[in-house]
Amino acid sequence: MKNIQCLVFGHGFKVTRNVTYHVKEYACKTCNKQLTTNGSGHLTELTPKFKEINDVLERIHNKRMSKTKRQKVKSDLLVFSH
Asked: pLDDT value at position 48?
């Protein structure tokens, strides 16, 4: 019954995970079909391979953001100490 609603009205996707600023994972509110953003920026079905890629991308992104944040704090401390 859920698939019929999606066939008639289309999927109602919502963001379920922000992997990076540009890569997100989506799921249909009705039938739970999962999609993700591919390398070209288009939506594609979330397969185990894309799930693994998104996990690695998220880990790299978070590591880079924390490193950038630490460098900013360090530079702010140097400015205030002079």
From this structure: 97
Q: For residue 13, what are the contacts with CB-CB under 8 A and spacing of at least 6?
A: 26, 27, 28, 29, 35
Find out whether 37 and 50 touch, Cβ atoms under 8 Å: no
Neighbours of 11 (CB within 10 A): 17
**Structure tokens that stand for 28 in this block:** 């249909």
Which stretches within 1-82 are classed as H helix? 2-9, 48-81
Q: What global pTM score does this model have?
A: 0.77
Cα 39 from Cα 74, distance rounded (Å): 34
What would the pLDDT profile of 8-20 be if each residue is shown by its tens digit?
Answer: 889 999 999 999 9
For residue 19, the tally of other CB atoms under 10 A from its CB is 19
φ and ψ at residue 17, rounded to 5 degrees: -160, 130
